[in-house]
Write the structure tokens for this entry.
Amino acid sequence: MSAAVMSGKEVAAALRAGAAERAAKLAGDGRRPRLAVVVATADESSAWYVRSIAGAAGKAGIDCDVVDLGPGASPGDIRRSLEGLSADDGVHGIILQTPLPRGATLEDLSSAIVPGKDVDGANPLSLGRLAAGLPAFAPATAEAVVTLLEHHGVEIAGRHAVVVGRSTVVGKPAAHLLLDRNATVTVAHSRTADLAAVTRQADILVAAAGRPGLVTAAHVRPGAVVVDVGTNPTDDGGLVGDVDPAAAEHAAALTPVPGGVGPVTTALLLRHTVQAAEAARP
């Protein structure tokens, strides 16, 4: 058995088209959506990601301002920038790009992004509302997991989902989103005792630990659906996931890296920005 490929390209294209249609309607009413991405790093992979967001936003009719504070920015500099953008009625969505300079953390600074503009669900208030089942923007990567599953017709309700990874960016919010869709959810991580015994219980396995090749064929129950969230850079400039390619021999379906979760994440950020613009004061 070889796993079916659950590509994210088709669903991402549909999300971008929907965002572009809604953005055009807003622009016709004189409210062109605007996204601000705050950057305080010289990391080249981060720069590539920001350029991809800006390019996708422009194609969807969304203005995108890259606020480059430089790698020497202090936590105070970053917070003041986020607070200024939060107070600017012309900005509808805000993303704080990582990595951040030494001494600055996403956990501390994301609270400066007002929840209504927190299109990547980073503010602790957004995460708390998500956990409570209240309206909030979910972290886009976590939402991409369930969006891909639903697009490919994977039944979530009543299934046992195992999420490997406990970050507030992916693991924990993905677990909440799966719970909201009536899955039974186990959260595991790299220090779980006998990880393979836990993951082999999964009907749906989400690998989001940020460790290349952590999930092997031995971790996958035959017939399971596997979502690989990992985006680990290689020495030759490529990307590999958290799932070893040999796992495809056991899985019924598997997302590719790249081309799976990544494009859906970017498309969801655009949709969230449009939603924020729609909800903003005229």
